[in-house]
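Example 3.2
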Amino acid sequence: MPEPSMPLGVGERIAFYRRRQGLTQVGLAGRLNRSVGWVRNIEQGRRQVDSTTVILELAGALGIEPNKLTGRPLFPPPAGPKMPQPSDVLADLRRVLLHYDGLHGLDLPDDRPPRPAADLEREVQLAEQTRRSEPRNFSAVVWMLPELIRDARYTARNADDTAERRRGWGVLARLYSLTAGSLWQWGDDDLGWIAADRSIRSAEQSDDPLLIVVGVRVMQQLLLAKGYLGDVIDLVDAASDQAAPGRDARPEQLVMWGSVQLMAAFAAARAGEEAEHARLRRQVDQAADRLGKDRLAFGSNFGPGDAALQHVGELVELGQPAKAIRRAEELPADPLPQVDRRAFHRIHQAKARFLQHKDRETTGLLMEAWQIAPEIVPFESMTFEMVRAMVGGPATGTTRICGRSLT
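Structure, written as C-alpha cells:
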C-alpha cells in the first residue's frame, strides 16, 4: 500500500498505517494497552491527539517514525532577492552536503588561494545572526550556505599551515551545524542528519572539543524530531566527555553544556520520565545560574532566560498545562530576542491552552507566533494538528483562522 498522497489528519493516518500492517483496531488497542473505543474515536476524529507523547506512543505501536503520523505540511520554496531560482539553491545545498570528502579526485583542480579562516568566521557569524533575527530566517540564510561550505572546506584542506587548517575545520563544523538546524526547520531530517554528522567529524579535525558539542546539540534536535528520546538523553554523556564544566569553566563552555542538558531535559519530559527530567532540570538550572545571564556561543543561546522559557515547554510535555501557564506568566512577553525563541514561547503556551480546551487563547497565541516566525510556526507539526482540530473537519493543504492561512 503506497504512502498517502493527499493531506490527512492524524486519526486518518493512524487508520492508514494500521491497515497497511494488517492490524485491526482491537490489535492496535492491545499494543497500546488502551480500549478499542479510544482507538476508534482517535481514527474517526471524535477524540483529538493532544500531545506529542501520544504521537510517539502510537508511532511506536505502528512501527513507524512519528512524522508519518503528523503529516507535516509541505514547506513552500524559500523566497527572497538573493534567490531568483530557489529550487537551484536547495539542489546546490544537497549536492554540497552529499559530496564525499574521502574519495581522491572528486574535487576539481582549483588554483585559487584558500580564503583566510578569519574572513570565513566573520561570514558564518553573520549567517548565524541572520537565522536568529530574520522572521523568514530559512529563506534569509539558506542561499549563503553552499558557497560558504565549499570555501571553508577548501581552506580546511589547503591552507598553508596546520593552525589555519584547523581553524578552517572549525568554521566548517559551525556551517554544517547551522545547515543541519536549517534543514530540521525545513523538514528534511535525513539530510539534516548528514549535515550534523559532518559537523561532528569536522569538529574532530579542528581539535576543539566545544565544537564537537555544537554538533552533538544539533544531532539531539534531529533525534528529538524523530522521537528517539532516549538517544537525545544519552548524548549528554558524549557532551560530558568533551565539555563537562569544571570550577573555572569559560562562559562558552557553560553555554554549550547547558544547551545539551536543556535538550535532554525536554526529551525526558516528553518521554514522561519525571525523575530523569528533574535530574536534568537541576543541571540546567545550575549551569544557567553560573552564567548569570543569557549568552551566545557558536550560534547557540543559553542562560537563565532560555532555561525558564524551555521550562514552560517541558511542563506542557509533562501534561501540566496549568503549571506551564503559571510559569509563562512569570516571564516577560519576550524573554529572549531570537526569532525562534519568541515564537516557541508562544507555541508552548498555545499547547497548554489547547490542553485546557481554550481555543480562543490558543488561536491568539498561534497567530502571534506566526507573525514573528512565518517560516517556523505553520510547519511545526503539533501546531498544524491543533489548528486542524480547532477548525474541525478533514485536514486540508490550507487551514484558515481569522481569515488568514496558516499553511
